[in-house]
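Internal ticket #5521
Category: modeling
Description: The requester needs a full-assembly model to guide mutagenesis choices. All entity lines are attached below as received. Residue total reported by intake: 529.
Assigned to: D.W.
Attached entities:
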Amino acid sequence: MFTFTQILLCCVFIFIMSLIGWSAQIFAYGANVLNGAVIGLIMGDVKTGLTVGGTMCLMSLGIGGYGGSSVPDYALGTYVGTMFAISSGGGLEAGLAIGIPVATLGTEFDVLTKMMGSFFIHGEMKASENHDWKGMTKSVWGWMFLRSALYTLPVLLVMTVGANLINSLLASIPTWLMNGLTVASGMLPALGFAILMKYLPLKRWGLFLVFGFVLYAYASLPMLAIAALTVVIAYLIYLYLQDKDAMKSTTSTAVGGANDDE
Amino acid sequence: MSNNSVVLSKKDLDQVLWRYIFVRQAPFNYETMQSGGFVWAMHPAMEKIYGDDDVIAKKYRSYFRFYNTHPWCGNIILGACLALESTKDESATDTAVELRTALMGPLAGLGDSIIWVLLMAVMGAIAGYQALNGSIGGWVIAEAVQLVIWFAFNKMFYIAYKQGVEFVTTRSAQLHNLTECASIVGIAVVGALIASIVNVHFGITMTVGEISQSLDDQLNSIIPCFGNIVAVVLIYKALGIKKMNSAKMVVYIIIISIILGATGILK
């Protein structure tokens, strides 16, 4: 099904991306487009890779592990989704059918590795007490490498022993289920935005939701234009807030009506 | 005392920053979250400043306490902590850990709202859309933007070390307003993204006499992207239910989508 070279390249790529994702984070923005493109390249179909990666990228907007929370792992979904979208010949639909469930399972994996972290932090603390600085290094980096290895393991499994099973599953997925998963891929971004809305100060600035919505849905402005326009407004509000702070700090001095003219 | 205080050289700082960049979230755990990587990263600097393993190990007990912030913003906190430690003042560590605890919340707020939410959503939307059209160009733009910010935050580590606590305290009021305004842009972008990226359509067709019209078209002629709004509002409300979290929500959404998709209520 998958050639040895494909399995090797995929696993190495995923291992490295997992390491980077938890350390330097230099590929954070639009990451799943890159993920899909590279897996697509390895599988020999960059275009399908971009389609699956792009869809996963849009689905994951707004979903982030803020404050140490665990969220679906759309990167893992992209890796597995892309390879089976191409190998099964089913394209985007097949990619989503396998990618979405995998991303969801990724949530549990994240919880598991963070629980695993307890063992390593205690190892590091103990090493510190014993002035065993090398042992401290082992604890920190041990977690990093173990996490990435455990992350790559399921990919290795589905590419080797699970490949035939998954392909035959994909071939036998009924149309109604495929339709349902397509609906889900359109609905899941709503979760990301709902989560964002929980984090953003909607009480005070909620009307800007309408502002952005109207500019896109009625005025059909491109996203960058909407962002730029709002930056201008936000800058004015920033100046106002700064002025207010400055006034607050100088209330002891004269509260002036000097600006009456003009 | 001040004349024998060791000031870290550029090379020492480079070393600490690079160590921190690679381990700032390891070993992530539910007890102390990111403190393990913080300690490991600062070790060469602490060794140079104090040079006594007993003293360092004692100080690390404080640094091992709970710590969690936006990883990139952590650069600033680490820089300020090292500035305090460089004074070799008796209470330096206590002050530094207190500062760290005081700053991690506001900086996480700033980092999450600007770096993780606002820019990530805008850049992700650009990268994703271009990818659907078969181009990687959008991702290249997104990556370029991210690298600029990434390097800027590395730079701030050095500034925070040089200017010390002053840098972070004088900036804190400004920081608060900046976060507030970034959130405004974030909210507007979310509004636009709800219209553009969410994709919920009703599949029901209503037949009145001989004319049959899709419910989706009718609703959209009143308010465009009507299905999107309904989906977001319902999910937003559902997130407020007790014991609900985003991980459970994903499963519910998939199940509900499959049911509604299979029955043809949504398409």
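Resolution: model delivered.
Comment from assignee: The first helix of chain A runs from residue 4 to 21.
Ticket closed.
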